[in-house]
Design goal:
Layout (H helix, E strand, L loop, with lengths): L20 E5 L4 E5 L21 H19 L9 H16 L2 H7 L9 H23 L6 H24 L13 H8 L8 H7 L2 H15 L5 H37 L3 H62 L1
Antiparallel strand pairs: 1-2
Helix pairs in contact: 2-4, 3-4, 4-5, 5-10, 6-10, 7-10, 8-9, 8-10, 9-10
């Protein structure tokens, strides 16, 4: 599972969902940057390389296949842990989890700096962090038959769960899954760039009194630091829900504003719908930008804490796995 630090080198990103893009200009050309965990595009001269992503449908298909395959394995119709394919599943899964340790070795050891781009090791780390535990689960046939096997299995599940949490946090402070780390100043600039990317008529619509006031209140609330810790924690948790609710409310105000401006400008139905779609998208992007910038510092602190906790979990997994292998082969 990902145990990525803040200063990864050779960074590039995978395709993913995002909010909106700003433009970063280099001496050579413009590079599009999605500041909220999506894709960035450019060429290798600017240090940007297209990432390799896996479609969401493929992921769900793989999950469904694994769930369907788990039932006959659980019933003991297909695999036996100590022999045949079941034994090799466990062996392969264990080797994959050992190879996961090559990523932190490549990242931290000075003598391993020439082992290739770090992002590829990170991809391998995540791939083995998923594939290894899956193979071991099938090796166990989803049963715990001894103390040492139980300790090894639950240590593995703890590391896997920790890795999933780490991946979730990581994407909120980096550009995409394999990208460089974001920074708060960049996110705040992105919040202020919405109007510059919209047409004059769209900017007028977005400044409609009801909409403008709601956007202003949301931004002030999101960046506000007042209140005790429980209140601020609840605001952090509920911010996404509040954003979604506000988008719906603003779109209702927008329908009225569009209809009024359409009469004044003589727009036909197609033009009216086009402006509505443009501004409603801009409102959603703006609020998403505010949320990302407001939550950035908290996610940054959470990632530091996660990194401290994840490392001992990995060591626990390694020790318990070695003990399990020794016990199985001795007895």
């Amino acid at each position: 599972m990902p145990s990525e630090s803040f200063h990864d080198e050779n960074a590039a990103t995978a395709n993913g969902g995002g909010s909106y893009t700003t433009e970063r200009r280099t001496k050579q050309h413009t590079v599009a940057v999605d500041v909220f965990g999506g894709s960035r595009s450019g060429d290798k001269r600017a240090g940007v390389v297209h990432g390799v992503g896996v479609g969401r449908n493929i992921v769900w298909f793989a999950i469904i296949v694994l769930v369907l395959a788990a039932w006959p394995v659980y019933k003991g119709w297909v695999l036996k842990p100590g022999s045949g394919l079941g034994y090799y599943f466990g062996y392969t899964g264990g080797v994959m989890m050992l190879l996961m340790l090559l990523y932190p070795l490549r990242k931290n050891a000075a003598w391993a700096r020439n082992w290739g781009a770090l992002r590829y090791w990170f991809m391998l780390h995540m791939l083995f962090g998923i594939g290894g535990p899956v193979l071991v689960l099938f090796h166990s046939t989803f049963h715990v038959k001894s103390l040492n096997a139980g300790v090894a299995l639950f240590s593995m599940l703890l590391v896997a769960l920790s890795g999933i949490i780490g991946r979730f946090i990581y994407k909120r402070i980096h550009h995409g899954l394999y990208g460089r780390k974001s920074n708060l100043e960049e996110l705040q600039k992105a919040v202020d760039s919405i109007h510059e990317k919209m047409g004059k008529a769209s900017a007028v619509l977005m400044d409609a009194p009801g909409i403008r006031e709601k956007l202003k209140q949301f931004r002030e609330m999101a960046f506000g630091k007042e209140g005790a810790f429980p209140l601020r924690a609840w605001k952090f948790i509920a911010l996404n829900w509040r954003r979604r609710k506000l988008v719906i409310n603003c779109c209702k105000e927008l329908q009225t504003a569009v209809a009024y401006l359409a009469k004044a400008q003589g727009w036909d139905t197609k033009q009216q719908d086009q402006h509505f779609q443009e501004v409603s998208s801009g409102i959603g992007n703006y609020l998403g930008a505010v949320q990302a910038a407001a939550q950035f510092s908290a996610y940054e602190r959470m990632f530091r804490l996660w990194h401290i906790l994840h490392t001992p979990f990995v060591w626990l997994l390694g020790i318990s796995g070695i003990i399990h292998v020794i016990a199985v082969n001795m007895y």
